[in-house]
Amino acid sequence: MSPSALLNDNDQHDNHLAPALKNGVHLNGHSTLTKGPSLTNGSLKAEYLLDRNLRKAYPVVKGGKGNYLYLNDGRKVFDSTSGAAVSCLGHGNQRVIDAVAAQMQTGTPYLASTFWMSEVVEELCKELINGTDGKMARVYLTGSGSEAMEATVKMARQFFFENNKNTPRVNFIARQHSYHGNTIGALGISGHVARRAPYEPFLMDNVHHVSPCNAYRQRQEGESNAAFVAKKAAELEATFQELGPETVVGFICEPVVGAALGCVPSVPGYLEAMRDVCHKHGALFILDEVMSGMGRCGTLHAWQDEDIVPDLQTIGKGLGAGYQPIAAVLISQRVVNALLDGSGQFVHGQTYQGMPVQAAAALEVQKIMREGNMMKNVQVQGAYLEARLKALLGDHPNVGDIRGRGLFWGIEFVKDKKTKEPFDLKTGIAQKVSDTAISAPFNMVMYPGTGTADGVRGDHVILAPTYIVTREDIDHIAKTASDVVHHVFSEL
């Protein structure tokens, strides 16, 4: 039922509950909702949901179609971020809706993976392996990116445990300013300072962080890609030596860093160099493509741009395009063989893994992407978005960098363009830009992030539109983004 329908039904709702209430409290002592949602200017502040921000009221969405979301206050908002880089096919895709409905009608949207197998689950996994050109071997399905990373960490350790129950390999190497998920294990892998801070006492002490591959903030003037990559490889090698190469399970990174840094891509040659260091010492090379994968960067998998195949890889978001909660781990034959030659099982399990209804949605999403040759559109429209953003915002005194790949672009804001000094955290630049963009008359979503410069300070916004955008849509996104940025900084 829509919020407006609930509001219109208040009198009947109150009368129905009246016999069990006294002063708005159930006779058993529990408080209850006696009125519908409280809307202010079309926004709703949750009273019963523990939302992400307990002090904030959010606009209420009543529907969506294509690139647009329709709000309760009558506005139509352009979703230029696909939510959190999730809704890659846009909203209301009828093919996916029909696929989900058909699976629901079988009476088995869920099957316990302990006992049963489903044809649609196996078909999805085959589709995903084919999407790697057979360079990965198996798929482990989960319900979220955090769960996929948690499974990856455990699988990586088990890879060595299968051959040696006393294996000394206990250390992971990840990167500063990275983000890999919200569970304790996934957060422990992450290097995002602010998100780790409240939970530091609980996080693993066997995770060690090297610097990210952030050319904008780290590369010296005139330094070549090869020289920059060589420094990164030397840093990783030094960390292996410090820990003892025989103690390292693997190295984990995002090919294009999403929310934590705002679409910072690795420079050409970086992934190959990091893989070579790992394999030199027998460690696993692990990629997190939950945000940057499944077509977001112009190839189905970001590693396919340079054909640097990982041992383990997480995927999510664009896998199911938001039509079902689904993510996965793609597993190389090397890792599969260790399990087959050892115990023959993965010592891990989740209630909602490999659900048929999740698989039905994701399979249809992947078929639509493949049949529609959407990677070509991502490449073409992504190149045009880059050109328009740089033309409209490249000279702005507070735009430090515009970077990304495919339809995954970040804009980093700075107080001083020459020194790259970030704004004070209290200024809240990224949130100001986001709040302004989503408001009238701009009516467009921009995804904000902080900690861009040093893990605490620094502001960026992300643009990650759907794979169905047209040239006209890109013109709208770029112009609106430019108008919003100019407006916000003119008001400071």
Automatic annotation (TrEMBL):
GO terms for molecular function: pyridoxal phosphate binding; transaminase activity. Pfam families: Aminotran_3. GO terms for cellular component: cytosol. Keywords: Aminotransferase, Pyridoxal phosphate, Transferase. InterPro entries: Aminotrans_3, PyrdxlP-dep_Trfase, PyrdxlP-dep_Trfase_major, PyrdxlP-dep_Trfase_small. NCBIfam families: PRK07483.1. Belongs to the class-III pyridoxal-phosphate-dependent aminotransferase family. This is Probable adenosylmethionine-8-amino-7-oxononanoate aminotransferase. It comes from Phialocephala subalpina. The lineage of its organism: Eukaryota, Fungi, Dikarya, Ascomycota, Pezizomycotina.
